[in-house]
Design goal:
The protein is an alpha+beta fold. It has 4 helices and 12 strands, in the order H-E-E-H-E-E-E-E-E-E-E-H-E-E-E-H. The two termini are 46 Å apart.
C-alpha cells in the first residue's frame, strides 16, 4: 500500500515540477495580453501655463490648460487585422483634446495605434495614423511591455511622427509601488499644425500660406510599474512656438503653449489602484504559482521517497514462543 501511494506522489511531484516552468515560460507569454475592448481616459493639467490668444496673436498667462486623453479599443478593427497578420492585435483609437481655462478647444488630435496584444510592438496595417496622416510607427507608445527591463526603449512621439530613445533613469518608489523611471527629450522640431484649429476659418493650409511654422519641444517623463508595463504617472514639460511669416506681424516667434503638464490627482489615485490589482495577476503567473508549484513538487517528491524507503525497510521477525508443556 505504501509503495502505491509513493508512486502516486511521485507522479504528482513530476507533474507540478513540470508545470512550474510551463506556466512561467509558455503559458504566461500567451495568456498575458491587453484586452481588445479596453477603454481608458486620463485628465492632465498644466497650471499657470502660457497660451496663445489667436484673436490678438499674443501669448498670455492663464491659470490652467486641461488635456483630456482617451484610448478606446476598436474590437471590429482588431478582428479584421488579426485575420491578415495571424496574431492577437489591439487597435486603440485615441484622442488628445486640449482646452483652455474658458473651456474652449485649443486643439484636438486623433490617433490610431495598432499593436501586438502580447508584446506591445507596433503592427503596421491600414488605418494607422496621427491626425489623419498615415504613419508607420517603430517603438512603443502609451504602454511598456509586460516585464519591463532596466534599459532604454524606443518611444514614438505623435507630434513629430518620429521615434526617439526614452532612457531608463533608475528605480524609484511611487505611492508605495516600485517603478522604473524613464525620460525622453524631444529637441525643437518643426511639426505640422493640427487639422482642427481653434479659430473658425483658419486651416493649416491658410496658415502655411502666411509662411508661419509651428515648432515643438518636450521633456517626457514616465514612472512605469515593471511587471505590468503600465505607467502609474506621467508628465511633460511642453513648449510650442509659432515662428516667422506674416501671421506674426514681423515678430520672429511667439509662444503658442508652454506649461508643465501633470496628471490630475484623482486620475493618479485611480491609475495606481488599477496597476496594483493587475500587478497581482502578473505576479501569480510569473512568481507565486511557478514557485509554489515547484515547492509543492519538491515536497511531494520528498514524501514519495520517504514512503518508498519505509516500504523497503525489512519487517523484524519475532521467534515463536514455545507452547507450555503439560503433564
Amino acid at each position: 500500500m505504501r509503495r502505491k501511494t509513493s508512486l502516486v506522489l511521485l507522479a504528482l511531484a513530476v507533474f507540478f515540477a513540470a508545470l512550474s516552468p510551463l506556466l512561467r515560460w509558455y503559458a504566461f507569454p500567451r495568456l498575458a495580453k491587453i484586452p481588445a475592448n479596453q477603454y481608458q481616459d486620463m485628465v492632465l493639467e498644466a497650471k499657470d501655463a502660457t497660451l496663445l490668444d489667436y484673436g490678438t496673436m499674443t501669448a498670455k498667462q492663464v491659470p490652467k490648460v486641461t488635456i483630456v486623453q482617451t484610448l478606446k479599443g476598436n474590437v471590429e478593427a482588431s478582428e479584421k487585422i488579426e485575420k491578415t497578420v495571424g496574431k492577437d492585435v489591439v487597435v486603440w483609437d485615441g484622442l488628445s483634446y486640449v482646452q483652455g481655462p474658458d473651456g474652449k478647444m485649443v486643439s484636438e488630435i486623433p490617433e490610431r495605434y495598432i499593436f501586438d496584444a502580447h508584446s506591445q510592438a507596433p503592427v503596421h496595417a491600414a488605418g494607422e495614423m496621427v491626425d489623419g496622416d498615415p504613419v508607420k510607427r517603430t517603438g512603443i507608445e502609451f504602454k511598456w511591455p509586460f516585464l519591463t527591463e532596466k534599459r532604454d526603449y524606443e518611444y514614438f512621439d505623435a507630434q513629430t511622427r518620429t521615434t526617439n530613445p526614452i532612457h531608463y533613469e533608475g528605480t524609484r518608489t511611487f505611492r508605495g509601488v516600485k517603478v522604473y523611471y524613464f525620460e525622453q527629450t524631444i529637441p525643437w522640431t518643426k511639426v505640422p499644425f493640427p487639422k482642427t484649429m481653434p479659430v473658425k476659418g483658419i486651416t493649416p493650409e491658410s496658415v502655411a500660406k502666411t509662411g508661419t511654422t509651428r515648432w515643438y519641444t518636450t521633456v517626457r517623463r514616465f514612472w512605469v510599474e515593471p511587471l505590468t508595463g503600465a505607467p502609474v504617472y506621467g508628465e511633460e514639460i511642453h513648449k510650442e512656438e509659432l515662428r516667422g511669416g506674416s501671421l506674426l506681424g514681423g515678430r520672429e516667434k511667439v509662444t503658442a503653449f508652454a506649461g508643465h503638464v501633470k496628471m490630475r490627482e484623482d486620475y493618479i489615485e485611480h491609475t495606481v489602484d488599477l496597476v496594483k490589482s493587475n500587478r497581482l495577476l502578473v505576479l501569480l503567473m510569473t512568481s507565486y504559482l511557478p514557485w509554489g508549484f515547484l515547492t509543492l513538487g519538491v515536497l511531494l517528491l520528498a514524501l514519495s521517497l520517504w514512503l518508498e524507503a519505509r516500504s523497503r525497510r525489512p519487517v523484524p521477525v519475532t521467534a515463536d514462543e514455545p507452547e507450555p508443556v503439560t503433564a
